[in-house]
Design goal:
Layout lengths: L1 H27 L6 H4 L18 H25 L4 H23 L9 H32 L1
Helix pairs in contact: 1-3, 3-4, 3-5, 4-5
């Protein structure tokens, strides 16, 4: 029962972090997004932007938070999907992180449109590492203990 609740919370947190990342893009980020190369940009898109002082800490945070939120959202969704299959889960999470890291590295080599920022790469790594440590010490042990009791 506890494992089902934890799995449900992973799903909820994945949705929350995904929505937070999208919200930051809608209200604070530039309208020159990769998605507008594929789809036509709605005319109302730029009217939603909230002005920020470019010298503020919030401006810096909003620069890398969406990528971190989306990475965390993806990891949490994979943890939810493969909750009881720990080896499969770990494999998919590693692949997912390499895809995200490859996206940033592709920006560095101008293969993918966007601006490479080493700080983005480091924060994404720290988010993935922190989530992995929290999972290992708090969730994985509980799953293994529940399996041993059964």
């Amino acid at each position: 029962m506890i494992n089902k609740n934890i799995r449900r919370m992973y799903f909820i947190f994945a949705l929350v972090f995904f929505i937070c990342g999208v919200t930051i893009y809608i209200f604070f980020r530039s309208s020159d997004l990769l998605i507008w190369f594929v789809f036509s940009k709605p005319e109302f898109w730029d009217t939603w932007k909230m002005p920020l002082n470019k010298n503020s800490v919030l401006y810096i945070l909003l620069g890398f938070l969406p990528d971190c939120f989306w990475l965390l959202s993806g990891i949490l969704a994979l943890r939810c999907l493969w909750f009881f299959e720990l080896k499969t889960q770990a494999l998919y999470i590693v692949i997912f992180y390499f895809i995200a890291a490859g996206y940033n590295i592709g920006q560095f080599f101008k293969i993918i449109p966007g601006t490479f920022d080493f700080f983005d790469f480091l924060t994404m790594l720290s988010v993935a590492l922190t989530e992995g440590i929290i999972f290992y010490f708090f969730i994985k042990r509980r799953i293994q203990n529940d399996k041993e009791k059964s």
